[in-house]
Specification:
6-stranded mixed β-barrel, Jelly Rolls, mainly beta, single chain
């Protein structure tokens, strides 16, 4: 089962060589066996963060990855195998983007969201501000819209996936505000 967050955003670079860049990292951020540091290009490869956090930039987007995490950025989607990803993105209805996790699919039509994948493939999805739609095996699509945090948890069951509302976890408004400030400083 997979969660796919399809984002209608203008945050996706067209270059296939680098998905973005590393702004900062408090833990060891590794890709292709090499440590990444502030200013390094963010490769279109599997990235591992053993612990700590990494702040990442793409055109029109800022991300906070929390470890332990395994994350793969691509020009048209992200894959988050485990860990947490907080995202602030500029909205553009003309672009499609997705984030894939092991348990469900969510189409994002908003700007700020959080996705976390736990050790048992449980997935928390929070629309922090904006709108998204989550779907997964065995469930109808779930539209989500919020001005201030709406969180659902999804988890695998024998017949597909179960879901329920849950409290906001794993991220703060302060972290969102930092990402928003970094994005606002970007020249459009």
């Amino acid at each position: 089962m997979k969660i796919i967050l399809s984002l209608l955003l203008a945050c996706v670079p067209s270059a296939a060589s680098a998905a973005g860049r590393v702004i900062s990292a408090t833990g060891t951020l590794m890709a292709d066996g090499k440590a990444l540091k502030a200013g390094d290009p963010l490769p279109n490869a599997e990235i591992r963060l053993a612990s700590g956090t990494a702040t990442l930039a793409m055109d029109g987007a800022r991300f906070l990855l929390k470890g332990p995490a395994r994350f793969t950025p691509r020009s048209s989607y992200f894959r988050l195998d485990f860990g947490s990803l907080l995202s602030v993105l500029r909205h553009d209805a003309g672009r499609r983007f997705s984030v894939r996790t092991p348990t469900a699919v969510a189409a994002v039509r908003g700007t700020d969201f959080f996705v976390s994948v736990g050790t048992k493939q449980e997935v928390d999805v929070c629309i922090c501000r904006g709108a998204l739609e989550v779907s997964s095996k065995g469930l109808d699509a779930l539209p989500m819209a919020a001005k201030d945090h709406l969180n659902y948890r999804f988890w695998p069951v024998k017949t597909g996936t179960a879901r329920d509302k849950s409290p906001m976890i794993g991220h703060t408004d302060a972290e969102l505000n930092v990402l928003r400030g970094l994005l606002a400083a970007e020249k459009p």
